[in-house]
Amino acid sequence: MEDSFDYAALCHALEKLYRDFGILPRVFGRTALGRALFALDLGSRRCRTLLLAGVSGADETAPLLLRFVKTLLQCRKDRVPFCGVDLRRAFGDCGLTVVPCLNPDGLELNAHGLSATGALRNFLRPLVQNDMPWHANASGVDLRHQFSAGFDAYRAAGKPAPGASGFGGERPQGEAESHAIAALCRKERFVRALLLQPGDRGLTVHPPQPERDFSLADKLLAQELSVSPQRATTPDGGFPFWFSETFHRAAYTIQTGKGTDPLPEKMLFSCLLLSMLL
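Predicted structure:
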């Protein structure tokens, strides 16, 4: 994560997008500590693709996704094609909903420690270790395993109590953040969803039917990233599994690389734009 990126930086970036491009974020939910969950809507309300980041509190993908939005909006404003695409025309036919950070409480806890946890400070004090990244939300629930697809099996095998990572909660979509993103998906009926997360660069496909071969869309997205697509197999309470199972539409996990092998931004941005056009 960028050293200076926290909830204040997130709000500042969204405010600057509004000042520069007139894009007003909407609040589709709030965390247990009252922080806003923001979504940015770009383009047509038909055929919308969801781009999601910041599910883990230790996840550095939120600023990456915000840079993608800024790049698109600047190209549209300047009437400059992006990756050969006329954005004004493209946004007339399809659109994006961008959720840059689903876990702002976890983001703040990583950035500022217990001072950012308000009324939950005493609850969290014995759980937080200074040398351990905090992936969960402010309730100690790992949102990466908080959804109903495979939830019971994961919970039986996973961590039994709140902590920095691995605890999926008492019930699926039981946290404010997971409940809010699930409600947003049901309301908007996105045609597909892409989740950004750190890790060895790659593309994981969560197909509507487990036995389905890779589709043309799967192969095109993988080609754009110069990786081989991988099929998701065992549901683990993750958002992409839930989205695919619930809406019978494809979901993808893009791992953005790490260390000395990051995914080049231009390559990633081209893939994210392609996901809207498919």
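Summary: Residues 7-105+176-277 form a domain with the Aminopeptidase fold (CATH 3.40.630.10).
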